[in-house]
Amino acid sequence: MDKYERVIEMAKRRGFLWQSFEIYGATAGFWDFGPLGAILKRRIENLWREFYVINEGFYEVDGPTIGIEDVFTASGHVRGFVDLVVECKKCGEMFRADHLTEKHNGGCPECGGVLGDPYAFNLMFKTAIGPDSKRIGYLRPETAQNIFTAFGRLVRFYRNKLPFGVAQIGKVYRNEISPRQGVIRLREFTQAEAEIFVHPWEKRHPRFGSVADTVVRLYPKEKQDGINITVGEAVEKGIIAHQFLGYHIALAQSFLTDVGIPLEKLRFRQHRVDERAHYAVDCWDAETLTDRFEWIELVGIADRTDYDLKSHSEHANADMRVFVSYDRPKTVEQLVIKPDMGVLGPKFKDMAAKVADALKALSIDQLRGEEIAVKIDGKIVRIDPKWIEYERVTEEVQGEYVVPHIIEPSYGIDRIVYALLEHSFEEECVEDDDARIVLRIPPNIAPIQVAVFPLLSKDGLVECAKRVESLLRQNKLLVDYDESGTIGRRYRRHDEIGTPLAVTIDHQTLDDDTVTIRDRDSMEQVRVRTDEVVEIVCGLLSGDVSFEGAGTRI
Ligand code: GAP
Asked: Model pTM?
């Protein structure tokens, strides 16, 4: 078994993850999070909220997972969210054309048969809305779009001030072609995305100084070869295009390492031009090194420019601009349109004023040409350019309308859960014993924070242990009470699921009201007074108390 198989075997056995619909033979791309997996995933999402909602101040929204066709036509997904697929003429297996390598010699990787011609396959799941099924809908392939379609409301919520960010965590769906990478490539998965609306030509980040010295490992697109560099230097040298991207690369590194992804297994790779999504001008992927799949993408950090807002603005005829005031008003010389009412009055009579207003609403560029046309009450009216005069005026301008650009860090939560399981999974040889499997998950996201064991299920130890369990639960800790099997087996069980601390109640507890606390990583134990156990456990979990100083060593 390779490491992926060993991790997945443990994950299934211990209640983290398993394939959905197993009793019916399962279908690739769908996985359930079991009791421990669901808590772990939720705790990772909550840590993400700490970073983006609490620290960055991006309000979180929660939109529908089904979108109407108009949304995905405007976003470009109906036309552009496609992969090239090839089908084997012999065994019928489907493959992503870009996943076929030269070693297959153009034949089917499964049976060697002849492959058909590649064709474009749209990855969105299509559905029909309403009982008459007339309205087409799609399961969303990214959470982002309903943030873009609600831009007008959001910008007012943020009092028309740039930059501002909006966060969303939720399910997304992609009908991946024959996903063969287990839990890495799913057809339904959870994204945590932040959409940050910035001034189009002001991509300096107000807090860039706080991350400028962060060292990151970058793989720029021309080089695709690693360099260790500070984010500040990378922006200065133009390796990272601007401070907003740099800031979010540093933030992603900070989040991923807090989750438990080791720094030495993390890199940021810039997309080559041919792999960029249709909406992005630049994108850096946070990738982690895994045993079976090598480097996999966990986060994409993209500059989506004004692509989405402009496209929705055109398709929905909605105003997606923000008025940005200048620091100081600017004096500008402008060419002002002055329709000649002496001509328009007699020609258009009652309609003359409307014609003049329509002409004033046109730009100078629109007024170039042999003939000008405007629409008045549904009718096209043709105007001779000679009927218009121009005047140069000096005006004081307070600001201008801009369509914001969007910077987007987009996290795949399921992949982060898997990467964390793999990176924290260790098999150790322990003297006179079988291998100890230990999951070194950071205490701030471990699905169970503390286990409580009575040494024996008699002699009054159970009652005492239940009291300790209750005290810990009252303090909102995630606790597991376990009295089955030998104490050694119970320690092993909790090592394997990553429980950082175990509290054991033994006969000495009855004599002197003390309990032991065992540390998962070092397997060391200290004795502490029962009335101090909550405070010490909380201190150990938060890192405020060191294990060495927590109590009397045993
Ligand atoms: N809104 C931008 C966006 O959707 P993406 O790079 O396509 O960007 C973001 O997706 C993240 O979602 C990826 O970095 C990856 O972690 C995760 N992801 C993408 N496809 C996935 C799949 N089929 N299964 C599991 N996670 C996936």
From this structure: 0.90
